[in-house]
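Journal club prep — side note

Before the paper discussion, L.F. wants everyone to see what a predicted structure for a comparable chain looks like in token form. Sequence:
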Amino acid sequence: MSWFQRSLSLMLVLLVAACAAQRTAPPAEPHYKVGEPYEIKGTTYYPHEDYSYDETGIASWYGQDFHGGRTANGEIFNKDELTAAHKTLPLPTLARVTNLDNGKSIVVRINDRGPFSGARLIDVSQRAAELLGFEAQGTAKVHVQVLADESKAIADAMRHYGASTPAAVASAEQAPSVQTAVLQPVETETLAPVQTTPAVHQQLLTTQPVQEVVQLPVTGTHQLYVQAGSFTVLENATRLQQTLSTFGKVTISDVRINGTLFHRVRVGPIRDVAGADATLAKVRSIAPSARTIVD
């Protein structure tokens, strides 16, 4: 075979491969999504709008294996963007994620469902895990707080004016030139419905978090627990505490929320994530809604 024939054959192979890649790559079909209840591995999840969401737990990350695939709300997953997956929050939602071990904090765009492995609260993109400082170890104790005003505005735009593909996120080196402001947590308790206009529609839909790390102060020991339930009747909490006593140390922690006293039943503290996963599996056999928290 001549040099020309070999070159022509190579070009044809590359052309076929490129065409195949184009055929298999899913088109972006972004849309606002809450979704119906669904079941994964025997656990039922109930998606709902929750703009006061403020939780602690364990974060993991996902990357190359899902790169280029479609997310649960029709966007295209990019491991180098600051996105995340959550089991029940609306898609998309903007949230601040803070690593409780080092205080590193970023804003992510939640546009996917998951994680469904063990005791995980949120699954962030590989780039997000890198900025938060836990890419190497795979998991981290985190605080997740929804940015209410911003998330409501985006949801309103997508519900009333249609959807559009989010703009590309600048790389870390390009971040200073990005004009979008760094989003900050919302401190108001009662939020009126956010109304947008077609003029700002595109700007809202293309909102992507700036790849910038904010250093926040972190205090406390941040220990892992499995919270089996929260009760307003102490007798119910005590009964569950006794039932779970074979799984380890079980305590009742009281907290007053909006004037109501709740008795939270917790197993722990637990030494590590693997231990939390194992304990959670046991506790869910008795209390299906149990979850892992950091306190």
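L.F.'s comment for the group: DSSP finds six helices and 13 strands in the chain. Keep this in mind when we get to the figures.
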